[in-house]
Every structure is written in structure tokens, then in C-alpha cells.
């Protein structure tokens, strides 16, 4: 696998730490536009194309024509990263779901765009499934506006769920969202949660505190100093009937049935929040909460790297066979999906820990020039991977350039090699909680840290800090 290295290898442990911090804090972006070409001889009309979703929080970015790769051979099959124009049609509804879906068309349109048939599998973990779950929460709350309960009955839930899937598919979304995102119609029913009606809920829960905590979710603080998440957990515990103490930042430990009940009750709490907020405000809040969850784990599937272990064990110097095996392995995993910058850090630590436990003690990431971007899908037209931002992002549709998404950073940041065999102590909140002291110019001069032959100046770090973005 060939990699084009935009920057030289950044050396020095302290410099490496600063660059990882810079990745967390940076708001620099790069756009990769994926043109959508019609089938040969077919020109879709404007009415057939879905409109770009509107969002007051995540505005579509300007796409420079220079950033759009062109596929000149219109008579040949399109590459995998070139989806065709989505076919739209009138959905066939059951007629048994008592909801006017046109009222929530802005959210269903955004979900259809984020879960487009051609790209949903590679952005499912970060973009599609979080948005699909948000739609279900909002639909549940919208439904409750015309009833005295926060959930749907089983039969109605089944019909409404079918209608939601049909509407999304009619606008170009993947029709297999239910299995891809592990969601069922029962998610709309409240499951085993004992309190589901609005009156009893508002008597059992401090609704003023809940609404104050979740009406505006702070994107800079929520994932590390949560406010809304513990409020939701507390409300779910209050309506669950389960007697246990909720500890901050710790998972609730209980019998499987109790865990299921608490999760079902969280769905009821989400429904009440959605009932109180405007659709877009609820969607923004739910997507931010989802980003806190998805960025805590690596979604990649690491198969046993036997060849890498055999080639890289007991290595003290660069080895062509080791790097060849490592690059071949990473080429395989990076085909799975697009991941965020924070997920890439965790994935690099997890895979490094796997290698260490198997006897590969040398930092092979450094020896073989492995960057964080190498753990994410390769964007067409570029030879380095694309990392998505840790904040929620949407696919942007344009009639001329097709779907595009925002990549984080242009620099190739070295993948972090774990300092121990365990990654359980890895925390991505330390930089947000307490930034380390900035280095002096003398320290920088001796650190061996260079960027394209130019010293990595203190002012660069200050730019990252001043443009703090979670």
C-alpha cells in the first residue's frame, strides 16, 4: 500500500503529545466531495433529487470545484466511492400510523440524506445510525403530543416503524437501517419500563432539572463534564423502580433485566425531551449525546494479526517484511468504514495493545510511518485516509457534486503507540480538562519536532488552542 506523506515523520514524545492534542482541539477541515454520476444515458430531473437538509447548527460547507475529483470514463462502471444518484419515489404507507409525517419532514429528510443507500455502510457508526436513532426519539415525542403516553402500543409501533423505513427508502436511504443500526419497532414502545404515561412521568421526575440540563447540550463540555447524560440516567432510574445508587461517570451494574429496563426507560426520557423541544433543537442535542458515546470506542473489527506479529516481533530497526505485513493488514481494516479522529486514536491504541500482548514491543507505527488517517477509509482521489470530526456531522448533498462530507485536518499525525499493555486508562478528556504547559522555544528547538523541515512553532499551538473545538 502506497502512502503519500504530506509531512515528515514527527519525532519526540513531547511533540507527539502536542500533535495529538492539536488533533483533538483543531477546527481545521478538509472537504472530500464524492460526485454522484447518473447512469449512462440517464439525466435525473431536479424534482427527482433530494434537497440538502436544513440545519441551523451544521451548515453545509462551500465546496471548491478544485476539490471535486472527476471520473472521465462515463461508459465504464463507476468506482465504489462513486454512488449513483438516489432514486426517489412516493412511499407506500400502511395507513395505520396516525401521524402526519409531513410535519417532521425536515428530520426525515436529514436522516435519508445521512443514510443514503450508497454511503450508509461506511458512515453508519458515526453519521447514519446516530441520526436514525435521533429521528425515532423525535417521532416518539411527536406522537406523544396527541396522546397521554410517551410510547406507542406494539401494533401501532410496528406500523409506524414500517412507514418510517418506507419514507426513508423512498428518499434514497438504505432500506436495511433496522438491521444495520440494531433498531426494532419495540424501541418505540418503552419496553419493560414501568412508567410510560406523561402524568405519572412528570410526577416522578424533576422535569425542570431535566429540561434545563438537556435543552442546550454544550458540545465543548458534555462528553467530558456531562450535564445532560447524568440527568437522563437519573430520570430513567426514577421511573424504572430499580433501587440502586447512580454513580457519576460509572456504568450501572445490575442484573441483565435491570439493565434492559433502564435502557427502555432512557427511551421514555428521550421521548419526553423530544416532546418539549423543537425538532431541530432535539436533533442537535441527541446527535451530540450520540457523539459522546461513539467516540468512546473503536468500531473497527481487528482480526488476529498473525502475519504482523510474526514479522514484527523482536524488532529493533526498520524491517521491510514487518512494514509490508503491517501495511497490508491496515489496508484491510481501513476498508471497513470512515471513523472520527477520536475513534482513530482509540483504534490505534487498541491495535497497538494487541500487538504488544503478542510480543511486538517496538513502536512499529513509528518505524513504518503509520498515521491516524491510516485507520480510516481512504477517500477517493486521495492516498491518505479521511478522518471525520468528533462532533456530529451530516452528509451534504449537492445537485452537481453529489454527496460530500467534512474531513478533519490536513496533517498526517503519527498514530499513538500505547505506553502499556492496557488501554483502559486511555482518556480523551485530559486535554479538555487541563491543557499541559506550552513548550518554550528552546524546548522546541531541541525536541526534534519538524514540519516539512520547518520548526513546529509555538504560534501554531496557540492557533489550535484559540480555535478550540471539541
UniProtKB/TrEMBL annotation:
Limits of the SPARK domain: 95-248
One Pfam family it belongs to: At1g61900
UniProt-listed InterPro entries: At1g61900-like, At1g61900_C, SPARK
Keywords: Signal
Gene Ontology CC annotation, any one: plasma membrane
Domain of life the protein comes from: Eukaryota
Boundaries of every At1g61900-like C-terminal domain copy: 296-369
Signal sequence bounds: 1-33
Name under which the protein is recorded: SPARK domain-containing protein
Organism: Anisodus tanguticus
Lineage start: Eukaryota, Viridiplantae, Streptophyta, Embryophyta, Tracheophyta
